[in-house]
Every structure is written in C-alpha cells, then in structure tokens.
Design a protein that fits this description.
The chain has 30 residues and is an all-alpha fold. The protein has 2 helices and no strands. 67% of the residues lie in helices and 0% in strands. It is flat. This is Valine--tRNA ligase. Keywords: Ligase. It comes from Gossypium arboreum (Tree cotton).
C-alpha cells in the first residue's frame, strides 16, 4: 500500500491530480 500512497502524493505535487475542495489537499497529504 505504501508505494501507491507515494505515487499518489507525487501526482498531487506535480499537479496531475486535483483534490476539490483544495482544503482537503493538506488533509490528504497527511
């Protein structure tokens, strides 16, 4: 599960994946 989480975080950092509303982005990263 960890590799998937790392790929998801990298996608968000690159802007490939957008979380709406944006306030959930900080929650998602933790």
């Amino acid at each position: 599960m960890q590799p998937l989480a790392e790929k998801a975080l990298l996608a968000i950092e690159k802007g490939e994946l957008t979380i709406i509303p944006e306030r959930f982005e900080k929650i998602y990263n933790h």
